[in-house]
Every structure is written in structure tokens, then in C-alpha cells.
Amino acid sequence: MTIDVEAESQELKQRSLGLIELLDAGHPTVVQPRSVLTESKRLARETLEARRKAAVKVALGEDPGCVVSPQPPLRRVDLDWRGRDTDPFHGASVVTGDLIQYWTHRRDVVFPAVEGAYRQAMVDRPYSEPLVAAARGHLAVLRGRQTMLSEGGADLEASLARYEQGYLNLRQLVVDSAEIAGQAETRLASLRRIVVEAELGDGPDERGFLAAAVSATTEAPINAETLSPLLSAEPGQ
User: Is the confidence at residue 153, as pLDDT, over 60?
Assistant: First the structure.
């Protein structure tokens, strides 16, 4: 039986091209939640505008109408061309309702929408184990024949690598999207702390509040000055 070497080589090359076409067409497509991201940008702009309005009130000696945290001891300073600090609050946090709304939206709306878009992409076009197995098997044949270049093996190998990397990247994006919620929750917790500290102040009321909080975790009474448990002088008393 005579084997047509040229025909066999051409058939293997066509097989390579067919697998490349399937792999390149099989990449997942992410549909970004544009309306959600647009709303996030709008809220960010409103947050900046609310901060600007508060700064104007402070400059006029008026109540800004929101909580302003103490200025941090160390911060990065942006100067204008005259060498003046461009931040009227000098690094202090300005807790406006718009700011809280922005970070709440990031946590409750943006995060699930972005994560959902990545997950949906994998649902719409799932990773194909049979296709990958077929490509790897074909590459093994070409390597055995030592015809990787002439029969499309090099291009197929590159296409397979792109395909697998695309799904690896997508899975990582699903994991990374959790940072949106984490960052938002951290920021909201910081804003809540600023508001509570502003309400308590630095006087004895704050220490009394803390003493009460610590007392809730122990049966011993608490010294409001030192916040330490008041222990009996002798055991058993």
C-alpha cells in the first residue's frame, strides 16, 4: 500500500488550521455592566462636588454640614504653581452623604455586577476540555513527525496557549473583583469610625463609652481613665 506523504501532510496541516479556528473562536467574551459603571462614575463626580461645596462653606467660616475628620499628621501634599496646598481640608476626610452613597454603591452594586459579568462569560462560552485534548493530541502527532513548522504546529501551539491563558485570566478576574467589595467595605468602616469619633469627641464621654464597651466583655468593673479592669486587692475578695 502506497502512502501519499504530501496528501497526508496537507491533511494534518488542515487539521491544525481547523483546531486553530475553533480555539480562536472559543475565547470567552465579557460584557461589561456599562450602566452600573456609568452610575458609579456619576456618583464619584457628585462626591467631588459635595466635597467642593463643603470646602467653600469652610472658607466662608460656615458649618460644612458634614463630619470632617482631624487632619492626618503625615500625608502626600499636592501643591499649585504658587506652592500652596490644593486640598482645602489638608488631607482630612469629609464624610458627606454622597461619599457614603458612592462606596455603598461600589460594594452592593458594582462588585456583584462586575463579578457576575466575568462568571457569565464562562457560562456562555465554557472551557472546552475536548477541544484542548484534541489540540494537544494533534500537537503530539506533529512533534512525533517533527513537522511542527510545516504542518501548522507552531501556530496551533500559540493558539492553544492563548486559549488557556484567556480562561486563566478570566478566573483570576473573578477572584480579583472581590477587591472592589473589600475596598468599599474598608472605606465605609473608616467613614463610620470617623463619624462615631466625631460624635464622641476626645473628652471623658468617649472614655466612658469605651469603658462600657470593655466592661461588656468582662465581669470586672473598668477604670474609665485607664480602661483597665479593677481587680480586688486580695484573691477571693
Answer: yes
**With left for phi above 0 and alpha for psi between -120 and 50, is residue 228 left, alpha or beta?**
beta
Burial string for 189-213 (b: 16+ CB within 10 Å, else e) reads eebeebbeeeeeeeeeeebeeebee
Asked whether 170 and 30 are in contact (CB, 8 A), the reply is yes
pLDDT of residue 201: 65
pLDDT of residue 22: 96
Q: Tell me which amino acid residue 102 is.
A: Y
How many Å separate Cα 5 from the centre of its chain? 55
Give Cα separations from 106 to 39, 52, 112, 177, 187 (angstroms).
10, 21, 9, 11, 11
Q: Quickly count: other Cβ atoms within 10 Å of residue 74's Cβ.
A: 6
* Contact of 168 with 91, CB cutoff 8 Å: no
- Which string of DSSP letters, residue by residue, matches 76-136? ---B-TTS-BS-TTTT--EE-HHHHHHHHHIIIIIHHHHHHHHHHHHHHS---HHHHHHHH
Residue at grid coordinates 477587591 = 179
